Amino acid sequence: MSSSVSPLAPKTVPDMPVIAGVRLATAEAGIRYKNRTDVLLAVMDKGTAVAGVFTKSKCPSAPVEWCRAKLKGGKARALVVNSGNANAFTGKTGRASTALTAKIAAKAVGCSESEIFLASTGVIGEPLDATKFDGVLGRLAETAEPGDYLAAAKAIMTTDTFPKVATATVKLGKARVTINGMAKGAGMIAPDMATMLSFIFTDAPIAPAALQALLKAGVEDTFNAVTIDGDTSTSDTLLAFATGAAAEHGAPKISRASDPRLKAFVKAFNQVLANLAEQVARDGEGARKLVEIIVEGAKTKASARKIAMSIANSPLVKTAIAGEDANWGRVVMAVGKAGEPADRDKLSISFNGIRVAKNGARDPSYDEAQVSDAMKAPEIAIKVSLGLGKGRDRVLTCDLTKEYVAINGDYRS
Amino acid sequence: MSSSVSPLAPKTVPDMPVIAGVRLATAEAGIRYKNRTDVLLAVMDKGTAVAGVFTKSKCPSAPVEWCRAKLKGGKARALVVNSGNANAFTGKTGRASTALTAKIAAKAVGCSESEIFLASTGVIGEPLDATKFDGVLGRLAETAEPGDYLAAAKAIMTTDTFPKVATATVKLGKARVTINGMAKGAGMIAPDMATMLSFIFTDAPIAPAALQALLKAGVEDTFNAVTIDGDTSTSDTLLAFATGAAAEHGAPKISRASDPRLKAFVKAFNQVLANLAEQVARDGEGARKLVEIIVEGAKTKASARKIAMSIANSPLVKTAIAGEDANWGRVVMAVGKAGEPADRDKLSISFNGIRVAKNGARDPSYDEAQVSDAMKAPEIAIKVSLGLGKGRDRVLTCDLTKEYVAINGDYRS
After folding, report:
1. Are A147 and A36 contained in the same domain?
2. Exposure string (b/e) for B229-264, b if CB count within 10 Å is 16 or more?
3. Contacts of residue B88 in chain A, CB cutoff 8 Å?
4. What are the pLDDT digits (tens) for B147-190?
5. Which domain holds residue A127?
6. Is there a single domain that holds both residue A119 and residue A255?
7. Is B68 within 8 Å of chain A by CB?
8. pLDDT digit string (tens) for A368-411?
9. Same domain, A278 and A399
10. CB contact (8 A) between residue B361 and residue A93
């Protein structure tokens, strides 16, 4: 969909190792796009645990409703993702479409329909013709191989300008286990929750309930701390799959998230989530600047989060950054509108380490030329010190550019 | 500041009658702008009642703090408004600046400083040099005349592309009374509350407490139902002044807002507020479309308001309208993210009277060409029927264009 890669894209793409028990395949089903892959099938070995977190939208898509219902079983054998059509706001047709997709996939993989997980992204409100999966999924199941995560990440893109993958390898007990992840953004991105599609795969033997607890805790400071435009998709889906294959070479079976043997794993797992979430911000529609908002000295972490989000979602702050203007007045505005405890006369604000405001007024040492120069950087950190308490939080966003308006003003045309 | 008048500007400007007991004067104080007026002085006769509502920002400007404190007296003799500098986030200097302005104004008018009301709009975070008012206000007090409301409205503009005035004449008892109003927008506009500067003048004899009650009730469905960008200014101020001069030709003195003799007055008063609020939306920064969001069938009016605001503040809905795209999927998204009761399968959505979605799916009679044609209109009404209850509400907003980004990306340069 997009013509040029975001200037904020990571300079290198990691080599993605295989994960025992996971096989991938992609195809061109012609759902909406031409001459590109738009379907991903991931086939998992028997015994794979699954966990998920989803949009908090009151009008979720049919695939989100499907996954929520199937998550209760805790087991997964396959994931089917399509791009180009979100199968959202498609009513009974949408439910029928997910059921048919699951039926086709279950037959292709040889499992129960309740072990099939589905995600769709793209246009909302258009019926998704699931018959297009007939044949395609069977062929994909036959050809699926342990491997090309980058190709998989490409098949799930919509307005993304680059595929998003991340990986980590870590010790669990005495065995090495691997965590691979992929994500797609890049608009309609706000927390509550996963704010896009993302899929995590690991060979660690972790029971469904423990995996669910890890995922829920992990998103809080990663995917839930990213916002592009404050808009929450009907389709936000983050699924994690643990095949357990590493048990064969000695990884201990984990049944509780609080298991102390998980410590290194949790850290690596959260790093993969954080890496993917940051890539989503780096690919925000039309983004030219990655913006980190740090709020400290708030009454609580929750209060710091609300204020950080108020700043991150302010069109006036975001357009000022696009204009390379250290407009701290708009940051004050956004602090004020958050409705959280704040004392104007204790506020300090800095842009990329240069303090521009102190004790509720312009910093006496403020040097316009120095600040203007700092604002030319592709990564901008705005730090707000409230001076009230010890609450601290951090969120990521991007600037608001004319390109965002262009991308979203003719998405369907 | 802006180069061309909004295409949504009213085609005609009303003749503004004089209001007995109110005299106006404007000047070029050179606070920020060159070759235009930037100071307004309104002088009111003794006995004028005052009421006000202000931003809910936790970091209000110095003039807002000043007005809030002085409102307790209930009496006003003068209003001083400057454009170009908001005197917000200016710390102790800001407080000193408001005190000095009030002192100069009180001397010029010959009243107590507690009867002076102040409002400032423009850049945040820059010290306001109140000594610039010295001399200017004295001259203005001498030359003030019962009159030119349009000139007054021009003096308080910032990024506005046209001055905003409204008037109504109505019977109070057997006497005719007049209500004049002016407002300025045009960005950093979200409710909670007045979301800009607006001043209402009337010769009706209404006591301060009654006037305050009228104003508070009146803004709910007018200024509080307008949003441009979801950003709330630190300076939002709406003040109402009632000189009481109409008592001389028989208007009854009103001490309670519930007085039945006020019925026609309240209607006219609210119409003036609604007219000004709509003009603010029509002059939203970069706006090319006036957008009315009507939500019906919600559980309650408050629930309908939240959903309407979620739609009105969605960047994705607003960019779609800029692109003349009846993207009802994004409307569903915004309904979903509001967090209010909604049932996807009961939702119906129409654009300018053409139903595009019904019972949670595309309307079977949907005709893309017909809808595309309707979206070319400069005024777009989006109606969402939830089918849950009798809650109904309406808010006004505008589209989000590249011009909004341009205006706000180089506001200071």
Report:
1. yes
2. bbbbbbbbbbbbbbbbbbbeeebbebeebebeebee
3. 329, 332
4. 899 999 999 988 788 999 999 999 999 999 999 999 987 655 44
5. 22-282
6. yes
7. no
8. 889 999 999 999 999 999 999 999 999 999 998 888 788 777 65
9. no
10. yes
